Amino acid sequence: MPDTDQVTQALARNLKRLRTERGHTLDSLAARSGVSRGMVVQIEQARTNPSVGTVVRLADALGVSIARLLDYAEGPSVRLVPGDRAVPLWTTPAGSSGTLLAGVEAPGPLELWSWRIEPGEGHGSESHPAGTVELVRVDEGELTLTVDGRDHIVPAGTTATFDAAVAHRYGNAADRPLLLTMVVSVPPLTR
Predict the structure, then answer these.
(1) Residue range 91-150, pLDDT digits in tens
(2) Is CATH 3.30.70.140 the right assignment for the domain spanning 83-185?
């Protein structure tokens, strides 16, 4: 598993490179993403470990996957991601977690996630760019999927898909851990 410093350095390097490639100034990226200019500077200088929400907003503003922002190096056309190189992006003291397993640009960001949510816990997300779709398969347990304020119960073995351009939340109201696999597809950034 990569250490925090590796992730921070990769994020700093990739954010600056992608911002420059796309012709964004610090101010324009800040305005586009809703992340303060000061925070963008701190991230590019590897002086902070930003929240998942901040990383998501920056990735969305740049039209790339979170995986691309956190990628350690450009690799061959076939890329193997060993389990110890997966990036845990959120955890709770009770043991819930969200781990980015891999991601590609195809033609927009496409991400594969493995999540564990402990009983009584959950994880919410702000709306993503229009056209973003999430696919979620419940591997174990029962998911309470809240999309745009409406709850949907998703039992083990079931896959749910939804338009993620609205606020959504993954929750576990059951008395055992919830394990799920998720794919997030973000449309390519229009220039």
Answers:
(1) 999 999 988 877 766 667 888 899 999 999 999 998 988 888 898 999 999 999 999 999
(2) no
SS3 28: helix
Residue 158: strand, helix, or coil:
coil
Distances (CA, A) of 139 to 67, 115, 136, 172, 184: 22, 10, 9, 13, 17
Tokens of 147: 């999309």
What is the rounded CA–CA span in Å between residue 179 and residue 176?
A: 10
Q: Are 125 and 81 in contact (CB under 8 A)?
A: no
Distance (Å, whole) CA 84 – CA 114: 13
* H-helix segments, 51-142: 52-62, 66-70
Token readout for 124 is 């919410």
Extract the tokens encoding 56: 């998501």
Q: Determine if the pTM surpasses 0.90.
A: no
Compute how many other C-beta atoms are within 10 angstroms of the C-beta atom of residue 95.
12
User: 93 preceded by cis ω (within 30°)?
Assistant: no
Q: What fold, for 4-70?
A: 434 Repressor (Amino-terminal Domain) (1.10.260)
Instruction: Determine phi and psi for 155, rounding to 5 degrees.
Output: -80, 165
